[in-house]
Specification:
CATH superfamily: Calycin beta-barrel core domain
Order of helices and strands: HHEEEEEEEEEEEEHH
CATH architecture: Beta Barrel
Strand order of the largest sheet: 1-2-3-4-5-6-7-8-9-10
Helix content: 10-25%
Largest sheet: 10 strands, antiparallel, barrel
Radius of gyration: 20 Å
Structural class: alpha+beta
Number of domains: 1
CATH class: Mainly Beta
């Protein structure tokens, strides 16, 4: 049984001070897709998760500013690559041929304890396959909201409840996740809980993001070496992807750099 920390009331107080009013997803409706340029592929789309890659400590609150029913959790976000290299040896095993996803795992959560975020280029929607604390499964789909948060919604469950998830990255050290639900046929959402995450090992003040991951351009946190050169990666998933196919990853990085240079020259 999960036991609340003695510091939880203090954490709740700090959390209430740090959560802005606009975190509520009623103010962040899905953006007009006609005004957005869709990502070229899944990897590009999932780069929006780069600010959350790593380990976090979270405080969940069913009622904002109240310790009633609140909990603490430890969460981790990583890139996940499933290789799909061509069999022929004369073909370059490019990094962008991999099946890409973002894996979320949490210890102590009363809501989502495991989840796989992906992007479908055909439907232009983000997807989440979630495992809840009670072992039930829940699937979400959605897109970025008009104010930048990612807004995902489930289909009605066996109780005719539709669940909504709003994920907002405030900066490299603060992320907010809001769980809501509504009855099928209704447009009014009620709060289930809000979870405020702070990156592990940091304080609330922001800092320079530093070196970038060679695989995804997220915040580099550890190093890998290849042919006498050192490169930064942001998580274990990116480290494994680099070690599995360093030439493909480096070729992909060169292509990104060339594309950025090309765009900069047009300005």
């Amino acid at each position: 049984m999960f036991r609340q920390s003695k510091l939880l009331p203090v954490a709740l107080g700090l959390l209430a001070c740090c959560i802005p009013a606009q975190v509520h997803s009623q103010n962040d409706k899905p953006a007009d897709s006609n005004k957005l340029t869709p990502p070229a592929n899944a990897k590009e789309a999932l780069r929006r998760f780069n600010p959350v890659i790593g380990s976090w400590r979270g405080v969940g609150q069913p009622r904002r500013g109240s310790a009633a029913g609140a909990w603490s959790e430890k969460a981790n976000w990583t890139w996940q690559f499933k290789s799909s290299k061509p069999a022929a040896k004369d073909k370059k095993p490019a990094a962008n041929t991999a099946t890409v996803a973002i894996r979320f795992k949490s210890t102590g959560s009363k809501l989502i304890v495991d989840g796989v975020f992906a992007y479908d280029p055909k439907t232009k929607l983000f997807t989440l396959q979630a495992t809840m604390a009670d072992k039930t499964k829940r699937n979400y789909t959605g897109k970025p909201g008009s104010q930048g948060a990612l807004v995902l919604e489930s289909k009605p469950d066996d109780k005719d409840q539709v669940h909504r998830l709003t994920i907002r990255s405030l900066n490299s050290k603060r992320t907010l996740v809001l769980h809501e639900r509504r009855r099928k046929g209704s447009t009014f959402y009620t709060r289930v809980a809000g979870i405020g995450y702070t990156r592990s090992g940091t304080r609330l003040a922001t800092a320079n993001i530093g070196p970038l991951c060679i695989v995804t351009e997220g915040k580099g946190t550890s190093k890998v070496s290849y042919k006498g050169k050192t490169y930064w990666v942001c998580c274990s998933g990116c480290r494994d992807a680099f070690l599995d196919d360093p030439e493909g990853v480096l070729a992909d990085a060169r292509d990104r750099a060339a594309e950025k240079k090309k765009k900069a020259s047009k300005k």
